[in-house]
Amino acid sequence: MKCRICREKAIIGLPQHNLALCADHFDNWMLKRAAKAIDEFKMFTKDSKILVAVSGGKDSLALWDILTRLGYNAHGLYINLGIKENDYSDESEELSRTFANRIGKKLQVVNVKELHGMSIPDKAYSKKRKTCSVCGVTKRYYMNKTAREGNFDVIATGHNLDDQAAALLGNFLYWKFDYLAKGAPYSPPLRKGEFAKAKPLILCTEKENTVYCLLQRIDYIQKECPYSKGATFLRWKHILNEIEENSPGAKQAFYLGYVKHIDIFKVQNEDMPDSRCKICDTPSWNEVCSFCALWDLNKK
Ligand code: Q46
Ligand code: ZN
Ligand code: ZN
User: Domain limits of the chain?
Assistant: First the structure.
């Protein structure tokens, strides 16, 4: 297999693009893929202040690296969830800090247990709630808070094409309209106090992000979060991989086709009240937002 551009030995085949590339041309191609997504979906500009949600995994570290190399003003935020299993949280924090030092960028760290006296899994147990739901509410809150306090313009996350397409398949199968309205590559803020969310690596696959990290010698956490992705999600991924193998490009066509028609699902979000949480003053449907209720801030 030879690189389509220079005819040297290719290190990766990209059948969905009818392409094979050597290390140098693949590296260049990844930068262009991210730049294309940023421009095509009007995510941000070189003047924007970007907060990258860093988990220590390959997707978010590849994203931070690519944005920095493209000349964007991107700072990192790492949220330590206090997950002890497999030393997951401490190890991913360490890798995120090491990477931030390497690229000379600022990494802000929020430690949930230090702030609230309890880790995410312990909170979930005490509230009899699913760990990922407690995690989601908490991460969202701290991402918005950090963005607000640091005067950021946009929050960028490392979502890749495989994960987005698998989530989309699951949401379509069960017609989850709420989620179908939220899968865009770029979501502008709906109200004051909220932030735009961008997914610059949305055109890149998991494999591409992994190869990028290997080539750039980015040390990322290889373990999955112990609470991650149930069997159902992995099944959707597996099914899409089978389809992709026989029809290269199907995964991207599936996701981009949805993006083109996403407005069909948006109707439900139109009448958002402009109410705010009486404790933290962030936009909220209820008097007390889900974060303040979860962490019992209304009782203090
Ligand atoms: S980090 Fe948090 Fe994920 Fe782990 S606890 Fe669940 S939501 S799986 S992206
Ligand atoms: Zn080449
Ligand atoms: Zn609140």
Answer: 33-229+242-269, 273-300
Does 132 belong to an annotated binding site? no
Pocket test for ligand 1, best of 89, 143, 227, 232 (most atoms within 8 A of CB): 227
Distance CA 26, CA 8 (A): 12
Q: Is the CB of 132 under 6 A from ligand 1?
A: yes
Does the pLDDT value for residue 269 go beyond 90?
no
CATH number of 33-229+242-269: 3.40.50.620
Rounded Cα–Cα distance for residues 261 and 245 (Å):
25
Interface pTM, i.e. ipTM: 0.97
Q: Is the pLDDT of residue 121 over 60?
A: yes
Average pLDDT of the chain to the nearest whole number: 94
pLDDT for the residue 266 = 79
Distance between CA atoms of residues 157 and 195, nearest Å: 12
